[in-house]
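Researcher: Please predict.
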Amino acid sequence: MTATSIFVNFPTSDLERAKAFYSALGFTINPLFTDDNAACVVLDENVYFMVLTREYFATFTDKQIIDPASQAQMSIALSRASREEVDAVLERGLAAGGTEPREAQDYGFMYSRDLDDPDGNNLSFLYMDPQAAQMGPEAWAAQQGADAPAPA
C-alpha cells in the first residue's frame, strides 16, 4: 500500500517572505514545485505545505479567500519530540517574523505553543508524553496520581 501524502494549501500575500519564514523553521523548499505563484514547503517525506499567492490560491476555489490575520479557517498541529523542541521552533519562528497569538498551553501530558506565520496562518507545535498518547490523558493522569487537565 502506498503511503498517503498530505498537501496543505494556504495563501500568502508575500511568497518570498513565506519561503524565508518556513525555511527559518527548519523546513526545506522543493524547487521542482516552486515558482512565482507557489512554494512547496517540505515538512517530511509525506507532508507538504503549498504556500500560494492569494491570486493563485483563488484559482483553486470559488469560495472567498479569508484574511488569515483576522479570520481562522483551520489550525495545523505539528508534533515535536520534546518540550524543548517546541520552544526552539517557536523561537526560530518568532525571530523570522511570526507571532505567538496566545500563551503556551501546558496540560502535564501535553505541551503546545501556537505560532502565526507573517500572514496570520496558525500553526501549533506540540509535545505529548508518549505514555499519555498510548494510554489516553485520563489513564496517564491516574497513573501519575493526578487529575488530567482538560485541553481548552
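Model: DSSP finds five helices and eight strands in the chain.
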